[in-house]
């Protein structure tokens, strides 16, 4: 398999982190069929480049925190993990319609619904050209899906973690409320942590830093951006050493 260059880095295997909200499109909750179809086609296109693709999904389009209620944290987090499994199944179905074979692996054993996460099996799927969707977070409360993405990326020996967002990179302030906000092209892990920049949570960034896993943050809302990024266009912000 040929190596692809993304943000100047040689890459063969990626972990793509998608928020649940992007699956909702313009809706507040649930699924937007057009968005699911578009993301599936874009994932098909990058698989066509020769990339091996793992995906971690959030669950915010179904469940967010305790939804404003005074719910015990472990219960709320467990519901969030189950929401990511629902999203994984929805994306798997959309990928199948786009002609892409995918497997959902979960951190919570639901044998009649999806495979239980086994690292060696996930790697075999990736080597065969299948997309692997990692659902259920880490399987533990108090850990975000950002941390799950870092963990799974390291477990499958991904060359790059790509975080898909609604903005075109990392800024020094909220670009929605501050038109003077500056976008970074490149950051170090330490700069990200010291500035408290909203790339990923501190645990996720620290894990990437400790294991020298580069992270790219980019805008996936603009159609075609994922393929452009994976084709070598200079999009988004890279966080590295």
Describe this structure in words.
This protein is α/β, with parallel strands linked by helices and 241 residues long. The protein has a single domain, classed as Acetylglutamate kinase-like (Carbamate kinase, 3-Layer(aba) Sandwich). It contains eight helices and 13 strands. The protein has helices spanning 20-23, 33-48, 73-97, 119-127, 145-155, 189-195, 202-210, 225-230; strands at residues 4-6, 9-11, 13-18, 52-57, 102-106, 115-116, 131-135, 160-165, 170-171, 183-184, 186-188, 215-219, 237-240. The strands form three sheets. Strands 6-5-7-4-3-8-12-13-11 form a nine-stranded mixed β-sheet, with helices on both faces. A two-stranded antiparallel sheet has the order 1-2. A hairpin with a 2-residue loop joins strand 1 (4-6) and strand 2 (9-11). Helix 2 crosses helix 3, helix 5 runs parallel beside helix 7 and helix 6 (189-195) packs antiparallel against helix 7. The mean pLDDT is 94.
- Give the topology string: H per helix, E per strand: EEEHHEHEEHEHEEEEHHEHE
CATH architecture descriptor name: 3-Layer(aba) Sandwich
Strand order of the largest sheet: 6-5-7-4-3-8-12-13-11
The number of helices is: 8
Instruction: Report the β-strand fraction as a percent range.
Output: 15-25%
Short description:
This protein has eight helices and 13 strands.
Question: What key attributes describe this structure?
Answer:
241 residues, alpha/beta, Carbamate kinase, nine-stranded mixed sheet, two-stranded antiparallel sheet, 8 helices, 36% helix, globular
How do the strands and helices of this protein lay out in sequence?
Elements (H helix, E strand, L loop, with lengths): L3 E3 L2 E3 L1 E6 L1 H4 L9 H16 L3 E6 L15 H25 L4 E5 L8 E2 L2 H9 L3 E5 L9 H11 L4 E6 L4 E2 L11 E2 L1 E3 H7 L6 H9 L4 E5 L5 H6 L6 E4 L1
């Amino acid at each position: 398999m040929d190596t692809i260059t993304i943000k100047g880095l040689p890459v063969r295997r990626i972990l793509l982190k998608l928020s649940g909200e992007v699956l909702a499109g313009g809706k507040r909750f649930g699924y937007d069929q057009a968005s699911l179809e578009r993301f599936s086609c874009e994932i098909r296109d990058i698989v066509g480049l020769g990339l091996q693709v793992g995906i971690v999904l959030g669950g915010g389009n179904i469940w967010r925190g305790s939804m404003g209620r005074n719910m015990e944290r472990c219960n709320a987090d467990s519901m969030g993990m189950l929401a990511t499994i629902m999203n994984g199944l929805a994306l798997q179905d959309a990928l199948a319609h786009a002609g892409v074979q995918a497997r959902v692996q979960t951190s919570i054993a639901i044998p009649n619904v999806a495979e239980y996460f086994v690292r060696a099996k996930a790697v075999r799927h990736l080597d065969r050209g299948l997309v692997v969707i990692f659902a259920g977070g880490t399987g533990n409360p108090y850990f975000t899906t950002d941390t799950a993405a870092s963990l799974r990326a390291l477990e499958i020996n991904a060359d790059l973690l790509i975080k898909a967002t609604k903005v075109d990179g990392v800024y020094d302030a909220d670009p929605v409320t501050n038109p003077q906000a500056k976008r970074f092209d490149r950051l170090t892990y330490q700069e990200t942590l010291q500035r408290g920049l909203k790339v990923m949570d501190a645990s996720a960034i620290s894990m990437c830093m400790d294991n020298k896993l580069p992270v790219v943050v980019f805008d996936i809302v603009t159609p075609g951006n994922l393929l452009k990024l994976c084709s070598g266009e200079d999009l988004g912000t890279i966080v590295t050493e």
